[in-house]
Design a protein that fits this description.
Layout (H helix, E strand, L loop, with lengths): L1 H7 L16 H8 L3 E5 L7 H9 L6 E6 L4 H9 L4 E4 L4 H12 L4 E2 L1 H13 L5 H9 L4 H11 L4 H8 L3 H15 L4 H11 L12
Parallel strand pairs: 1-2, 2-3, 3-4
Helix pairs in contact: 3-4, 7-11, 8-10, 8-11, 9-10
Length: 211
């Protein structure tokens, strides 16, 4: 209730509905057609991670921001690999929650800074993970220009920042990102970033992937 009241106070946000159980999410989304879903991890019957994966498998899926009181590596990575566009802790200041919704609605990823650091550290330390070969094989399908854009997405750059770095218009960057999602069969920018980090050598976070 407190979260709904806080979000309703933002002029450009409208709370269209609530669900108390992960199993209710599909029906609620079909009926209410929200742009963004705030998903709690701990819910009865079906938890938020399973609900996120089911929801993001829909062809017309809204963006998802996962909110929780705990940020274990397993929960963070499972949420992001399921297609969540953001991961926030419940103690995140209200203004940051509103900002996260706006960013994720616009296709930009948003995570609590401490969660982002832990995710990058975890991926950097898991060099023996068999996902690395798969990630490199997928990135090898890309053109050099697409790999450059993917590498910058992996660093957390916005479309505007990528455009400045590569001397491209924002519209061109958006087109690149759309092609990346299609060619890599991914749901959002966060999953592009995870794929890029999966492909890196241990300890090499922040460097462009080789392919």
């Amino acid at each position: 209730m407190g979260l709904s009241m806080m979000l309703s106070a933002a002029d450009d946000l409208e709370v269209v509905g609530e669900a108390s159980d992960g199993s209710e999410v599909d029906a609620a989304v079909r009926g209410l057609r929200p742009d963004v879903v705030l998903m709690d991890i701990r819910m009865p019957t079906m938890d938020g991670l399973a609900a996120t994966a089911r929801l993001r498998a829909r062809p017309d899926a809204p963006q998802v921001v996962v909110m929780t009181t705990f940020d274990t590596d397993d929960h963070v990575l499972r949420a992001l690999r399921a297609g969540a566009g953001g991961f926030l802790l419940k103690h995140t200041p209200p203004a940051e929650i509103v900002r996260a919704i706006r960013l994720v609605a616009a296709g930009e990823p948003m995570m609590t800074p401490s969660v982002l650091r832990r995710m990058m550290d975890f991926v950097a330390e898991s060099g023996a993970d068999p996902r690395r070969d798969r990630a490199r094989a997928l990135l090898a399908r890309l053109t050099p220009g697409e790999r450059e854009v993917a590498a910058l997405v992996g660093r957390g750059a916005t479309n505007a920042e990528i455009g400045r770095e590569l001397s491209l218009s924002v519209a061109t960057v958006k087109a690149y990102v759309s092609r990346l999602l299609t060619k890599l069969d991914l749901n959002n920018r966060v999953q592009i970033a995870l794929l890029v980090h999966d492909a890196e050598e241990p300890g090499a976070a922040g460097t462009p992937p080789s392919a």
